[in-house]
Amino acid sequence: MRTLSEPFSFEEEIKKSRFIAHAMPVSSSEEALGFFSRLYEPEATHNCWAFKVGQNYRFNDDGEPGGTAGRPILQAIEGQDLTNVAVLVIRYFGGIKLGTGGLVRAYGGCAAKCLRQAPQVEIIETRTVICSCLFSEMALVKSRIAQTEARVTDEIYTDTGITMTLEIPLEQVSPLEQVFINLTKGKGQWYLPDEIGPL
Fold first, then answer.
1. Strands across the sheet with 151-157, in order?
2. pTM for the model
3. What is d(CA 170, CA 150) in angstroms, rounded to the nearest whole number?
């Protein structure tokens, strides 16, 4: 799956109506709705939108005939195998009615063109790992972590060493765990917080 690496906008005129599409990467439905309210243009005829975050999705026709705006925008997102994306399509009516089929093509087409041109990135699934080691092993452990795509998101120093929270690409978790075990001679602690049972 892919998402956008940055916000992107696209504009076109269809039978004298102006269609402006704004697309943005989002990580939650709240972020998507915030994006729509920030870019909402009250003087426009319609502000139609859709978003998809994981299995979550919503769309809004904003007064256009049901199914002619929000759903086609959502289909444009899904058609390009994207997720964690919000798209707002603003319409300024130009005096010529498009009909339901024309509206579906206009909203869906404008959203699709915007998304096709927007910069996209692969979504890399990661796991959170917490590991602890002694001060004597810290420099070596940190140096090896820095050579991978893992990110240190938190560090807590104790009397004897350090506890680090790491964000690691899924396929690198096992190999890095083996490296960590070797560097700490099996004495370091390594665990996935979501796998800890009730205490």
1. 151-157, 161-169, 126-134, 189-191
2. 0.71
3. 10
